[in-house]
Amino acid sequence: MKIKLFAIVAMTAFATACASTPAEVDEPIPAPRPEPVAQPAQPAGPTAGSVEHFVATAGDRVFFGYDRHDLTAEARSTLRSQAAWLNTYSDARITISGNCDERGTREYNLALGARRANAARDYLISQGVDASRITTRSFGKENPTCTESNESCWAINRNSITTITGGYTN
Q: Where are the domains of the chain?
């Protein structure tokens, strides 16, 4: 029995001696993360003084009632914004185009479109914009924004559109 006990102890010792302990593995040290580089701030909108800036900040059109060329309160507000922009960017030149809906004769609508463009022009001049920077033209019913034949489209087409034609940055 002593031999059996001795054999068991010897085998246990031998088995324990043969068991290997895992070698310690050095964990790689993570490389330090680079600090984020601050990017220059991108402008949040159109470039100041550009055509896009004019449209975004002042608006490029005013609307008129049926067979009318007088300025509504909303039209005067838009034109005041246009005048402020134009007075800030004093090299900019503009063209104001008068437009009508499809109803009426070509000749009548050309004359009405001219009256609409001139109403917008006169208001801009009254707000301090130099008259030499403004030209007008009438498209009458020949340049519609909306081509459907219904009241909502006709209302959109009764307008004057101010376009920057020169002297701006872009």
A: 51-166
